[in-house]
Amino acid sequence: MNLRRAGRLALANGEPIISDDEAVRYIDERGFVLLVPSPDMPLPSLSAADPRPAWEGYTITDAAWQWKEVLPGRKQCAYGKFIRNRGVFISWRLFPAFYAIFGPVDGMEGEYAARSMSPQERMVLDIIQAEGPIDTRALWRETRPFFGGNRKALVQALTTLQDRFIITVAGGELDGWSLHSWDLVTRQTPEGLLDKLPSADEATRLILLQLLENAVCCTTALAASVLRLNRGAARAILEKYATAGLITQVRISGETGLFWSLAQEWAD
User: Fold this and answer.
1) Where are the alpha helices (DSSP H) in the chain?
2) Whole-prediction pTM
3) Which residues are 156's β-sheet partners?
4) Rounded Cα gap, residues 248 and 255, in angstroms
5) 42 — phi, psi (to 5°)?
6) Domain check: are 91 and 106 in the same one?
7) End-to-end distance of the chain based on CA atoms, in angstroms?
8) Are residues 95 and 18 in the same domain?
9) Based on the domain organization, do 129 and 90 belong to the same domain?
10) C-alpha angle 59/61/65, rounded to 5°?
11) pLDDT of 208-262, one tens digit each?
């Protein structure tokens, strides 16, 4: 399993990820990748795929540190805290599937009504909608009195709006400690990309199969976490695709329990 996962840390042709263009190709091939490795999410990351050494004491490389600002700034992919509060790059190929399931209900006004957006989140969103792209520093200057100087409250509002696929990183500064700029998802995506979204069932299928391709194999718990479902609902979906012959359950040497994997992964 580990050897197969290591094989996911390169382009499909086996070449390493060095340049900006190669990073974009990698994101497109993988559909979605983490910024840095995560012990509880065995998924590819741009930092791990970069063959150059990470910073001492950290798991991020110089190139990955830049890619999280440069690539979304050029609108070559989406980047934000989209999965379990982790920094994630999502290709435009797969982004409509994520947006179909997790994006705003009936537009932003519908989101405000349907999910009880807090006044803090609404205020931050209104500023981004009016002034975006806007960097965190400028956003903090405008919102600091409202938050009573509590910067963590702004960070939480930004995190929640990313999680709901309403705002996204729109580039940022690289001098010193990087500084994100923010804008609406609908202004960052390519024109027409979100006009015709897949159904919820099709979007779930696309994300789940890409998850299994990226992870090689995964637990029900990981699938449930990425799809934002309880384990029972996730298991029912996994079993449906197993019945259809798309996925299977496997045992991994040295691991306990059963894992889900693409049926074709073990065909050889």
Assistant:
1) 2-7, 20-30, 46-49, 62-73, 95-102, 107-114, 119-131, 136-147, 151-163, 185-188, 200-215, 220-227, 231-243
2) 0.94
3) none
4) 16
5) -75, 70
6) no
7) 14
8) yes
9) no
10) 105
11) 999 999 999 999 999 999 999 999 999 999 999 999 999 999 988 888 889 999 9
Token output for 79: 């980047």
CA-to-CA distance for 193 and 96, rounded, in angstroms? 7
Maximal C-alpha separation, the chain: 62
Residue 235: which CATH number?
1.10.10
Contact by Cβ (8 Å): 59, 37: yes
> Residue 109 is part of which domain span?
102-169+178-184
- Produce one character per residue of 233-258: b if its CB has 16 or more CB atoms within 10 Å, e if not: ebbebbeebeeeebbbebeeeeeeee
CA distance 61 to 56: 9
Per the DSSP assignment, residues forming a β-bridge with 182 are 134, 169
100, amino acid identity: A
Using CA atoms, how far residue 146 sits from 41, 59, 120, 149, in Å, is 36, 35, 8, 8
204 Cβ contact list (under 8 Å, min separation 6) = 97, 101, 227, 237
> Residue with structure tokens 């994997």?
261
User: Mean of the pLDDT values across residues 164-192?
Assistant: 91
Cis peptide before 133 (omega within 30 of 0): yes
Q: What are residue 220's DSSP bridge partners?
A: none
Q: Does residue 11 contact residue 20 with C-beta atoms inside 8 Å?
A: no
